[in-house]
Write a structure and sequence with these properties.
It contains 12 helices and 22 strands. It is an alpha/beta fold and about 450 residues long. The longest helix is centred in the N-terminal third of the chain and has 13 residues. The C terminus is likely disordered.
Length: about 450
C-alpha cells in the first residue's frame, strides 16, 4: 500500500460564503456508460464525471470491446457487435464497476476475469454472482467475492430471478441494466427486507425507459424487463448531488452561505434529500435559477433521520450531528457496513477519537455531541470519510486527514475545491447569495 502524507484540514477563518460547482454524478455517469455499451448504436455522454470510478468503468467496457472516444467534455461510446471475452477487469473500489459490469460480461462468448483493490474483496458479491448463475452464466461454485472469473454467452437466457438485495440496491440495478439484452428478458424479484437506496433503482428504471426499454414495476419488489434493443441516447450528466454534501454542510456548520449551481428541479439522485436534511438541522435552504443555496443559522438542531434512501450521505450527516445541540439518531443504514469500509464502525471510531460520544446501533448511529478536539482522522481509503473529516476541520482546530487522495474516487479536485471555497468565502458579501423566499418557508425535498 502506498504511504500517504497527512493533510491538515483547513480551518474556516470566517463563515463560509462561496459558490461551488461540483462535477457530474458518478451514479448517472456509470449507468449511462453501461447503457451506451449495451445500446444498438453509438451514444454521446456529455459532462460525465472524470474520476477514478468512471475511468475504471470506461477501461472495463473497453476490455469488453466497447470503443470510447474522449474529447473535451464529451465521450462517444460505440458498442461492439459482440462483446469480447478473454480479458481481466480491474474494479478498484468502485461498487458500480464490480456490480454493473459482470452482467454485461456475461453476454461475452467466453471467460472474463474480475479483480479489484484488496479492500474490495470483503464487499458483498454473492447475491449478484448467484443471480448470474441462475441467468445462465458459468461461475465456479466457490466464487462468492472478488476476485472471480465468469463464462458468458451472447444468448444468455435470463428469465425469472429471485434475489435478496437488502444489502445493496446495486444488485437490482446491475441486473436491470442488462436485462433487456437477455434472451428471455428478466423477471427480477426481491425476497428480503427493504431494499436500501430506492432512488438509485428509480434512476436505473428511468434511464432504461428513456432508451425505450419496457419495464413493469407495478408490483412491489418485482421488475419485469422485456427483451429487446436498448436505444442509443445522447445525454448531459447532472451534477453529483451527493458530492455537494460537504460543501453545503460547510455553510450550515459555519453560519455561512454556499450555492451549488445547476441543481436540478427534479431528479432521482438520492443527494437531493440534502434539501430536507439540512433544513432539519436548522439551515435555510432555497432553490432558484442560481442553484441550491444553504444558509447556516446560529445553531444546529439535533435530528432523528432515516437515511435508508440516501445512505452515502451518512458520513457527512454524522459529522454535522457531532456539532449539533443534542443527541441525534441516524437510522436505516446497517448496509453501509459493507461499503468501501465499514462506515458505521469507522465513524464511531473517528468521531470518538476527536472527543464525541458515538455508539453504533443495529441499523445506524447514536451521536452525543461533546467539545471536539484535533487529531488524526482516519479515511479508510473512503472518499465519504474524507469529506466528513474535512468538514469537521473547518471548525475544529488541528484535524489532519490520513489520506485526502482517496477523494479521487469520485472527485479528484476535492482538495482544491475545498481550499478555493475557503479562500473565496472572504470575498462574498452576506447579501450576495440568498435563497428564493417561499410562502411555506425554505424549499425542501
Amino acid at each position: 500500500m502506498t504511504a500517504t502524507t497527512p493533510w491538515p484540514a483547513p480551518l474556516a477563518p470566517a463563515p463560509i460564503r462561496a459558490t461551488v460547482s461540483v462535477p457530474g454524478s458518478k451514479s448517472e455517469t456509470n449507468r449511462a456508460l453501461i447503457l451506451a455499451a449495451l445500446a444498438s448504436g453509438p451514444s454521446t455522454i456529455r459532462y460525465g464525471l472524470e474520476a477514478r470510478d468512471t475511468r475504471l468503468m470506461r477501461d472495463a467496457l473497453r476490455t469488453l470491446g466497447v470503443k470510447i472516444t474522449e474529447s473535451d467534455h464529451e465521450w462517444l461510446v460505440e458498442p461492439p457487435a459482440t462483446f469480447t471475452a478473454g480479458g481481466t477487469i480491474d474494479c478498484g473500489l468502485a461498487g458500480t464497476v464490480m456490480r454493473f459490469v459482470p452482467p454485461v460480461a456475461a453476454l461475452a462468448p467466453g471467460e472474463v476475469s474480475f479483480d479489484a483493490d484488496e479492500q474490495a474483496y470483503r464487499r458483498p458479491m454473492d447475491v449478484l454472482l448467484n443471480a448470474l448463475r441462475d441467468c445462465g452464466a458459468g461461475l465456479p461454485a466457490e466464487a462468492t467475492t472478488l476476485p472471480f472469473s465468469l463464462t458468458g454467452r451472447p444468448d444468455l437466457p435470463g428469465g425469472v430471478i429471485t434475489i435478496d438485495s437488502s444489502a445493496s440496491s446495486q444488485f437490482v440495478s446491475a441486473l436491470l441494466l442488462a436485462g433487456a439484452r437477455f434472451a428471455q428478458g428478466l423477471d427480477l424479484r426481491h425476497d428480503g427486507k427493504d431494499v436500501p437506496s430506492q432512488p438509485h433503482i428509480d434512476m436505473t428504471v428511468a434511464m432504461l425507459r428513456d432508451r425505450g426499454v419496457k419495464i413493469d414495476d407495478s408490483e412491489p419488489a418485482r421488475w419485469v424487463v422485456s427483451p429487446g434493443p436498448i436505444a442509443p441516447l445522447d445525454v448531459d450528466i447532472e451534477p453529483d448531488l451527493s458530492n455537494a454534501a460537504p460543501f453545503l454542510a460547510a455553510a450550515a456548520i459555519t453560519g455561512g452561505a454556499v450555492t451549488v449551481p445547476n441543481w436540478p428541479d427534479r431528479t432521482n439522485q438520492p443527494g437531493d434529500q440534502l434539501r430536507d436534511i439540512l433544513a432539519r438541522f436548522g439551515a435555510a435552504v432555497g432553490l432558484n435559477d442560481s442553484g441550491l443555496t444553504v444558509i447556516g443559522t446560529d445553531h444546529l438542531a439535533a435530528v432523528d433521520l432515516d437515511l435508508r434512501e440516501c445512505s452515502e450521505l451518512t458520513p457527512v450527516i454524522a459529522a454535522i450531528a457531532a456539532l449539533a445541540d443534542g443527541t441525534s439518531h441516524l437510522r436505516g443504514v446497517a448496509h453501509i457496513r459493507g461499503h468501501e469500509t465499514d462506515r458505521l464502525a469507522a465513524l464511531e471510531s473517528e468521531l470518538n477519537a476527536l472527543g464525541a460520544n458515538v455508539d453504533q446501533t443495529d441499523d445506524g448511529l447514536k451521536i452525543h455531541p461533546r467539545l471536539l478536539g484535533g487529531g488524526l482522522w482516519g479515511c479508510y481509503a473512503d472518499h465519504r470519510m474524507a469529506h466528513a473529516g474535512a468538514l469537521l476541520g473547518l471548525v475544529v482546530n488541528d484535524v489532519q486527514l490520513d489520506d485526502i487522495d482517496c477523494t479521487s474516487k469520485t472527485m479528484p479536485e476535492f482538495a482544491r475545491l475545498w481550499q478555493t471555497m475557503i479562500d473565496d468565502s472572504a470575498d462574498q458579501s452576506e447579501d450576495s447569495i440568498e435563497p428564493r423566499p417561499t410562502a411555506e418557508g425554505p424549499t425542501t425535498a
